[in-house]
Amino acid sequence: MTVHSANPEKSSTYWTGIGVSIGAGVGLVAGLLISGGDGIAVGMCLGAGVGVALGSSRDAVNRRRDRGDAAR
Question: How far from 2 is each of 5, 6, 9, 11, 45, CA to CA, in Å?
Fold first, then answer.
C-alpha cells in the first residue's frame, strides 16, 4: 500500500494559473464599471496580463528558493 504525503507538491505554474484566474475576474469587473459593456474585453485582457506577470514572477521566486540559488 502506498503512503501519500499530506502536503502535496504544488505545480511549478501554480501562481501563474491563480494570477490568470483572478486577474481576468478583476479585469472583467473593472472594465464593466469603468466603461460599461464595451470595456469588458479590454479589462479582462489587461487583468489577465497583469495576473500572468505577477504569478510567473512569484513562481520564478519559488523555483529559485527551492533550488537554493543565492539572491542576486
Answer: 10, 13, 16, 21, 44
11-68, pLDDT tens digit by residue? Answer: 888 999 999 999 999 999 999 999 988 899 999 999 999 999 999 999 999 888 877 7
Question: What are the cell numbers at 71?
Answer: 539572491
CA R_g for the chain:
17
Model pTM score: 0.74
Please, what is the angle between helix 14-35 and helix 40-67, to 10°? Answer: 160
